[in-house]
Design a protein that fits this description.
This protein is of the alpha/beta class. The chain has 14 helices and twelve strands. It has a six-stranded parallel sheet with strand order 3-2-1-4-5-6, sandwiched between helices. It has a six-stranded parallel sheet with strand order 9-8-7-10-11-12, with helices on both faces.
Length: 382
Amino acid sequence: MSFPQTGADGPIRIAYVVNKLATGGVKSLLTSYLRHIDHDRFEIEFVVCKGGLVSSDYAGIESMGGSVIEVAPISNPLAYVPDCARALKRGGYDIVQACMNSLNVFPLLAAKAVGVPVRISYNLSTSHPGEGKSAAKSALRPFGNLFTTARAANSELAWDWLFGEERASKRTIIPNAIDLNVYGFDKGLRERTRAEMGWEDLFVVGHIGRFEYQKNHTLLVEIFKEVLAREPRSRLALVGYGSMKERVFGKIDELGLADAVVDLGATEDLNGLYNAFDCFVLPSFYEGLPVVGIEAQATGCPCVFSSEITRETEVNDQVVFVSLSEPADCWAEAVLRFEGVERTDGREAVASHGFEAKEAARNLERFYLAQLGECDSQRRES
């Protein structure tokens, strides 16, 4: 099979369709691909929903050679689908990659309506029964295979959730790759960051994640209460934003933990923090494959994950999985086992598991070219 080298008028044009591009795992993942893809052959633009962000949030994307097009909010599909279709038609894209979980059905319908030849449903997450939007996700999940020409996911768990286990033999896994020039262990950086934060003699538990149901901050705070009871020199460092932040910090105050908790806000400058943490804790109700878990391990930071997180996230022997059914004191014991553990660089292990961004970008390019080649073959046969 011969693959096309460029689109009809230059590079192959790709639209990544997402809800928001706020700081977080989806943005980190997709911009990593944008940064490392061959810009002579591929041109990536983001189609995002209006509201909640300002132009400065897109500055990093533009500096990497991408651009952002805003369309109507997905909360109103009757407005979203035609507006998205107009944007996709104007863009003249060869490939549309929808990255919105079970909501992928709507941008892919728009893409099919305007004749985009390659339509990829890309799933990055799953769901949990306790989540408020779980019912809507479940209702839309059977439609996850409509209007697609190809499917992909960031983990086997995410694939099975949206596309079904019966398609397991046809899985295409595109991992959450990270830039190992950005993330890695640096003893000097660790010491500087800890000095700046006043953490030199403390045991620092870190968490990076949106303040939303999925990340399970309630349990995280309870875990830290138990950690602090056992090790009074502990601190909990929280990075993120989200609708539940005020509620979480209300619980922190209620439990008398405020003096031991550090609110670091929403930042994308994370390598220094990963280096400064002594243990990274992610008690999520669900994930596809968390980017933060790979970034943390690249810096050699020990990790404690919920058992709901796919084992594909584990790249070294300093990872512990704990069931959500276990009490907080059991979690605390898992966290404190890493107190005083000597740090080593984790980049080699991350790369060996396929999470290195440059290699992953080359694999992604081959996937795109294969899909375009298959599309051309079908067109010739018809």
